[in-house]
Amino acid sequence: MSRMGTVICAAVAIAAGAYWLSLPSSSGNLPASPLIGSADAQQAEVDTSSIADMVQGAEDAPVEIIEYASYTCPHCARFHEDGYKQLKADFIDTGKVRFIYREVYFDRYGLWASMVARCGGPEKFFGITDLIFKGQSEWSRAGGPAEIADELRKIGRLAGIDNDKLDACLGDATMAQTLVAWYQEHATRDEINSTPSFIVNGKKVENQPYADFKALIEAELAN
């Protein structure tokens, strides 16, 4: 795993209709301190019930896997280029695994990527997620915030979302704050401290080679 990311400044700022997190970029491990410093006092008041889990697979599948991942985490991108595709073919598409994807926010860019991925609704979420991870090395290094936002918009347009809707999604400050509160609730409850991390039938599992992950899933299916 990569080194622990540290929070330089955790504050909420809303400027020009956009939501900004004054955080450094990171590449695998969660910050030790909260993402939202100045908003901590209001954190308990944020209603996260409007945020839906993004799910693939049969509702009654015998194994439930929750993945916690960041769009700016290279380890997560590698998993989605390899292990996830095998997992989908072997277990999700065959009705054996119900797969839930939950975003982790190391930085503002990962949050923006999440807002673009969710902009097309559940039916487009996983397709956009694939595009975001596939192009991670390009969009995340496009330059400053404006250039990165433009690259994320390009991904959204590629998925069939128009500019007006993308601008509305990226400028939705309430949604952004709610997503961060939602992430914090789940990550705290499940004791998530690195990405990608997995919860398999209620048990926390660290990232590992797909062969080992497959064996673990098969053991769950045999129970």
From TrEMBL:
The keyword Isomerase applies. It holds the Pfam family Thioredoxin_4. InterPro entries: Thioredoxin-like_fold (IPR012336), Thioredoxin-like_sf (IPR036249), Thioredoxin_domain (IPR013766). GO terms for molecular function: isomerase activity. Signal peptide: none annotated. It comes from the Bacteria. Residues 12-222 form the Thioredoxin domain. Keywords: Isomerase. PROSITE patterns: THIOREDOXIN_2. Transmembrane segments: none annotated. May be required for disulfide bond formation in some proteins. Belongs to the thioredoxin family. DsbA subfamily. This is Protein-disulfide isomerase. It comes from Ruegeria marina.
